[in-house]
Amino acid sequence: MFEFIHGLGKNKELETIVQEIDSNIANNYKDAAQEAFVLLEQKFQELSDKGRLKDKQIAEYQHKIAAYQETLRGFSHKDQKPYWHS
Fold it and tell me: Does residue 17 fall inside a structural domain?
């Protein structure tokens, strides 16, 4: 009934990137998740520098970025061994 309230305080550009990261993580697209995370950091910095985010949004996205940093640490295909080598 009040779905519009759920989106208040969110930035559409950043939320689109967050959804992309979540989707990539869920589908085990490691490199794509890492690339989207870099994009999230860049866009967040850009919007912060331009003053387009409120203090509450800044705190929320800083928390999300920190959580993604922890989740994505070591999340890549570089160290993954091919299944055909045992």
Answer: yes
